[in-house]
Amino acid sequence: MAATNNQNPREFAHFKRVCGAWTIEALQARFEEHRFAAHTHDTWSIGAVISGAKDISAKRGGGQVFQENQVYCLPPDSPHAGRVVGKACEYVMLYVPDGAWREQCESLGVDLRQFQHRLPADTRQARRAQAFVDRIFRSPEAIGAWAGEWSLFCESLLDKYRSAPRLTESASSMRADPALARAYEYLHEFWNRNVSLSDLSRESSMTTSDVCRRFSAAYGLSPHRYQLVLRVMEAKVRLLMGAEISEVASETGFADQSHFGRHFKSILGVTPGTVAKGGRRHR
Description:
By secondary structure, the chain is of the alpha+beta class. The chain has twelve helices and seven strands. The longest helix is centred in the C-terminal third of the chain and has 18 residues, at 223-240. The radius of gyration is 21 Å and the shape is globular. The termini are far apart. This is AraC family transcriptional regulator. InterPro entries: AraC-bd (IPR003313), AraC_XylS_family_regulators (IPR050204), Homeodomain-like_sf (IPR009057), HTH-like (IPR037923), HTH_AraC (IPR018060), HTH_AraC-typ_CS (IPR018062), Tscrpt_reg_AraC-type_HTH (IPR020449). It holds the Pfam family AraC_binding. Residues 181-278 form the HTH araC/xylS-type domain.
C-alpha cells in the first residue's frame, strides 16, 4: 500500500496491527491530495467511507467510486488504487486474512459473492466499521485477547446479509445433540477464557461453521455472543455482592474496564457502576 508524504497537515494515516487468533490490520485515514498507486493486498480489504468519496479504480475510468457511508469489501489480490473525489475523504480499512473472513461468513451463512458487488450506503454499517477500528486503536489488547470481539463485530456487520437458516430441526432436538451439548458445556466451563470457534469445533467434532450455525439455531445466540452474556451476567452477580468494578472486569475475562463497561451496558442497559451502587444500597 502506498504511503502519504504527510506534507498536507490536514491529511493523516494511522496504522495498527492486532495479533490474536488472526492477525488483522487497521487503517484510519483522511486525504485531500494523496493518490495511491495501483496495488493489491493478499487479504480481504474491508473499507467504510466516513465522509466524502473515493475512487479506488486501478485503471482510469474504472468507475469504482464509493460515497459517504458506503461499506465495501475487496477479495484478496484485487487490483485497486485510490484518489479523493471532491475535496476530501475520510475512511477506515480492515485488512483481514482470507481464512478469518471466510470462517465468519460461512459460520453466519453469508455468501461471499455478495461482496464482489457494490453495496448500498448504510450509515449504521459504516459506523459499526468505524467503531471497531476505533477500538483497535484504543484497546488493541482487548481485541487480541478474545476472539469473540472479532466474531461479534462480524456478526453485527454481516447480519443483514445472512441467508435464511436451512435447519429444519427444532431448537429442543438440536440441544439434545450430544455434540452440541459438549460445545455448550465447554462454554459454561470456560466462560471467562478466550474460547474460539476452533475450540468448540474440536470439542463438538463439528466444523467451525457447523458448530456456529447449529449453536445459534439451538440457543438463539452465536457462541461468542452467548459467552459474552455469560460473562456479563456473572459480572452483575459479583458487582451486587460488593466486588470492585476493576476486579470484576479482570475476573470475568475482560481486557479492561472500558471494554467491560461497553459490553455490560450493551446487554443490561446500565453501567457497571450503576449496578454496583444499587447493590450497596440494598446491603
